[in-house]
TrEMBL record:
Homodimer. Its EC number is 5.1.1.7. Substrate binds at N13, Q46, N66, G76, N77, N165, N198, E216, R217, G226, T227. The gene is dapF. This is Diaminopimelate epimerase. Belongs to the diaminopimelate epimerase family. It catalyses: (2S,6S)-2,6-diaminopimelate = meso-2,6-diaminopimelate. The active site is at C75 (proton donor), C225 (proton acceptor). It comes from Pelomonas margarita. It is found in: Cytoplasm.
Length: 282
């Protein structure tokens, strides 16, 4: 089958975007793996699928697949690229767009400078929301926020945050020296996370600036992770390390994250860039 797609990235987190309002979307997981493969296909961290809205007050439905073909709940950098795509393709004349994902309604705004702000919804901290099995473990409380140990991983303390998808974030002294590629997969696949988890490593540079690397579920380390940036900042705010507006330095670019606490939504602002249009036979 021939498939038209657009290659995009948000701070280096890269995507194959499929417009399923104009062509049917029926790729098997095997075809998605091929599409996502950097040697045998196009290559990307995630595949984003744009579909017509299924509820009356939403503008679109937006689905996310990791490059393994597994459908996941949320992708922050992808949400910004989604907006850039639907506006540039003329699928909407709006600049404020509402979209349904698997488990959240997102509100997105294309700014005059081309960046996109996403209302990511409120974070959830209960272990069951990830899910995480806390049985037999005692967390250390930092400013009242639970930091969880993990069996076999000496010295690791994880702040647990669901942004609709699961995140486990730890504070490290030097993010460039952090064991992202060795410890990341151990956390991602740890038995206490039955649906696996995205593992974040954050270095606090100031109360309004962090450096972050994320070992993503399925995709491995990416150049940026939008939901990971939200999770790291809200964990840092809850632990008392960070202020309410924080610049997040990733290997692929800068994201701005704001959170007023409690049930307030997390706001993420950052770039969304088109790379090229293409067509592939799968
Ligand atoms: N890159 C993303 C997150 C994509 C999904 C993640 N790998 C998961 O499995 O939850 C982002 O920008 O948020």
């Amino acid at each position: 089958m021939r498939l038209r797609f657009t290659k995009m990235h948000g701070a280096g987190n890269d995507f194959v975007v499929i417009d399923a309002t104009q062509q049917p979307f029926r790729l098997s997981p095997e075809q998605m793996r091929r599409l996502g493969d950097r040697r045998f296909g196009v290559g990307c961290d995630q595949i984003l699928v744009i579909e017509p809205a299924t509820s009356a007050d939403a503008d679109f439905r937006y689905r996310i697949f990791n490059n393994t073909g597994d459908e996941v709940e949320h992708c922050g950098n992808g949400a910004r690229c989604f907006v850039r795509f639907v506006v540039d393709a003329g699928l909407t004349a709006k600049r404020d767009i509402q979209v349904d994902t698997m488990n959240r309604r997102l509100r997105l705004t294309l700014q005059d400078d081309g960046r996109v702000t996403v209302n990511m919804g409120a974070p959830v901290f209960e272990p069951a929301a990830l899910p995480f099995d806390p049985q037999g473990l005692t967390p250390r409380l930092e400013n009242g926020f639970a930091l969880w140990p993990l069996d076999e991983l000496q010295g690791v303390e994880l702040g647990l945050v669901s942004m609709g998808n699961p995140h486990a974030v730890q504070r490290v002294a030097d993010v460039e020296a952090a064991p992202v590629l060795t410890q990341g997969p151990l956390i991602e696949g740890h038995a206490r996370f039955p649906r696996r988890v995205n593992a974040g490593f954050m270095q606090i540079l100031a109360r309004d600036r962090i450096a972050l690397r994320v070992y993503e579920r399925d995709a491995g380390e990416t150049l940026a992770c939008g939901t990971g940036a939200c999770a790291a900042v809200v964990a840092g705010i809850r632990a008392g390390w960070l202020d309410a507006a924080v610049e997040v330095q990733t290997r692929g670019g800068l994201l701005k994250i704001e959170w007023a606490g409690g049930d307030a939504p997390v706001l993420m602002t950052g770039p969304a860039t088109k790379v090229f249009d293409g067509e592939i036979t799968l």
